[in-house]
Amino acid sequence: xxxxxxxEKLLLAGRIAKAVRGIAPRLVFEGAKVLxxxxxxxxxxxxxxxxxxxxxxxxxxxxxxxxxxxxxxxxLVPPGALVKVDLGVHIDGYIxxxxxxxxVDSEHxxxxxxxxxxxxxxxxxxxIGGKISDVGPVVEKTIRSMGYRPIRNLTGHQIELYTIxxxxxxxxxxxxxxxxxxxxWSVYAIEPFATLPKAAGEVKERNPGNILHxxxxxxxxxxxxxxxxxxxxxxxRTLPFARRWVANLGNAVEExxxxxxxxxxxxxVEATKNPIAQAEHTLITTDREIIVTT
Length: 294
Ligand code: MN
Ligand code: MN
Known about the structure:
alpha+beta, 2 domains, binds manganese (II) ion, four-stranded antiparallel beta sheet
């Protein structure tokens, strides 16, 4: 739920996210440093008056989500890649979440058109008071009709204040048991993912991807961790943040990870290592309207 002031902040976050997404194609090219893409996106968010709601995710080929550059990352964009740039903007905790896939001369560039059309059709299937499970069949049918396969275990999600994933998922396929309905005065991200028809069509958790978030909202006893906790909580609350952003905290981050005070997201990779394309918008509902903010 949000009020009038919240609505203005959601719309502003959306406008900034849309503008920042627009620079992704310029930042992504063969041989570009992934670190430069992350910093370019995050820098533009701040320049336009927002804050990053999570680290810029740059997911290449079979990587579906949850990779951001560690400090000093030397990874380069390879030739023939599908590169997903997923970014989040917040204004006082009011979030916009959006993603675009850029083809670097990829032979699978048509997959981008499939997820973009699926996103458009998926959004058209949203009704206030309608079932959340109305979206998945439309997204799945669109992706399949264009000769691709949806990723069944990556979903859209409801968004709340300072919370990127409220716990309510918006599936991209039929057959999910979701009795939930789209509520008025709420925020949802719709995000179809597609892969090749020969692929498994699901992602698996792999190595940690340098994206962390605070788990325990309790000041730790250890002096080193307590200082780090205060800083992390004041800067990010429970929103995801990058290892890059807390390099100043040194070993406290590792200590908090081993003490389960922090969680590090694993990178999500297509189970059969086939390439993935993604498109994403955030929408808000009023009591009568659906507004795509991004
Ligand atoms: Mn996203
Ligand atoms: Mn999302």
